[in-house]
Amino acid sequence: MSTLFQKDIETTETSEGVYKGQISDNWGVNGVPNGGYLMAVMANALLQQTERQAPVVFTANYLNRTSPGEVEIVNDVMVQSKQFDRRQVGLIQGDKERVRAMVTMMDKYDEVSETRYESEPPQVKPRGECQRMIPFPGYSLFGNVIGLMEPASFGWMKGDLGKNSEHRGWLRLKDEQPWDVESILLASDAFPPPVLASQGLVAWVPTIELTVQIRRIPTSRWLKCVFRSKYITGGLVEEDGEIWDEDGNLVAISRQLAQFRRGERNRVQEAGLKVVGKALDANRWWRNR
Question: Which of 149, 173, 253, 270 lies 20 to 30 Å from 188 when distance is taken between CA atoms?
């Protein structure tokens, strides 16, 4: 039986290299489809077209805002070699291309070759000491992933800003679906922007470009995640992410470039903060189930 996520990323081939899909409103952030979710829809079409099933680099450029509704996905081969396929994928809605991605594919993820890490997996508090990202108006994504963040990562929701822009926590899919390529892409963009930890929620942070390097498929249902930002310059902010499984394997690393705008909060954000604030004040803690 398909999970909600699998149903919401399904695409159907209409002609060679061309697929149609339906963008769902189940994975929204501030009322807009999540960038990682859009990558997952594109990957679903791509994986149907190529025998190589291991995207190792997936770079998406967000050209125009996407809305829930029908989309067309077009895949083109750029170059092929003995080891790699390099492809470009376009997501089109209406008369505009909304997302353009460049993808490097391998046959499979190499889990046999020598592995060397120069830094250890990040330290994250146990899940029983973390708090769940609860769904609130306009943020349907948080109702369909189970995201647990360290208490320090929630300070900005109550106006208690930190010195550093960093979020640490855990993630799994609500339906307990095993992780795969598409869901890893979703995970890479499933936490709130870490810059909010130091700057607060004054406006959202729209993504310009997101690159995800997938190193392997996880062996555990929970993923350990850390996302950091260090520099705000010229209205831009970067976000670096690490995703690990519970066995200490590096699953993916990401780099995102986004706009940073100090606009006024909209009604969706204000309503959401009220919901979250009540939950935090009531000390509602969600533990691993």
Answer: 270
CB-based burial of residue 283 (10 Å sphere; 0-12 exposed, 13-18 middle, 19+ buried)? Answer: exposed
| CA-to-CA dists, residue 202 to 106, 141, 159, 224, 260, angstroms | 41, 20, 11, 27, 10
Residue-wise DSSP of 42-78: HHHHHHHH-S--EEEEEEEEE-S---SEEEEEEEEEE
Which CATH fold would you assign to the domain 4-106? Porin (2.40.160)
DSSP 8-state class, residue 30: T
Asked whether the beta carbons of 141 and 28 are under 8 A apart, the reply is yes
191: which DSSP letter?
Answer: S
| Domain map (residue ranges) of the chain | 4-106, 127-281
Tell me the per-residue pLDDT of 166-194, one tens digit each, with 9 for 90 and over.
Answer: 999 999 998 888 999 999 999 999 999 99
259: which residues sit within 8 A by CB, 6+ positions away? 205, 206, 208, 235, 236, 237
